[in-house]
Amino acid sequence: KVGWYNDVLQPAFHLPYPDDTLAFVVLSTPSMFDKALKPFVNKERLKIIRDPVDQCISHHLSCVKEKFPDQKVDIICDYEILPNRKPKFLAQTAAHVAGAAYYYQRKDVKLDPWGKKKIYGVCIHPKYGGWFAIRALLLFPDIQVPLLEQTAPTDCVSTEEKRIELLEQFNFHWQDWRYRDIIEVKERYSEEQKAYFATPPAERFRLLGL
Questions:
Q1: Stretch 7-24: mean pLDDT, rounded?
Q2: Its principal location (predicted)?
Q3: Which of 23, 39, 110, 197 has the most CB atoms less than 10 A away?
């Protein structure tokens, strides 16, 4: 429910919907690269491609929207920003309140070793660890769900030591991917996919043969 999200954030970040409005958080799993992105790029080859992943996600979400011709469906993608440069929604907070992935933050560590350093939080999925992405929100403004019960996300990095290790790796060594394997995972990015996301955006077209 939108209210779960708004309840944990300052008013500046609130979504402008009633508290009981139904929303879905959309995640992409490791197989997205082969099952969605590559076929999309092959099909769209002759058209203008700006950001293949963003356009692929947008394409698939518009297909979802078409499945609900009688419903108003609002889509907010993770890359969309407001005129003041703030994101339109805080993806990790949304994933946490939806029960999709646990958002580990500095406040989840009792004995904080970082002093004055800025420490960013990160979501971990119980099945995919850090090998996933939060892509969008689907909102159904005309559907109110007052009786929907909130499910807590799975706390899969439950020890203090592991949480410190996770936040250390994510904040200071994120390029080496280690934080994504903080837990045992069922599936991870392929070498090809890792190469794609490790490549600067301007050079990714070459990797896709564009």
A1: 97
A2: cytoplasm
A3: 23
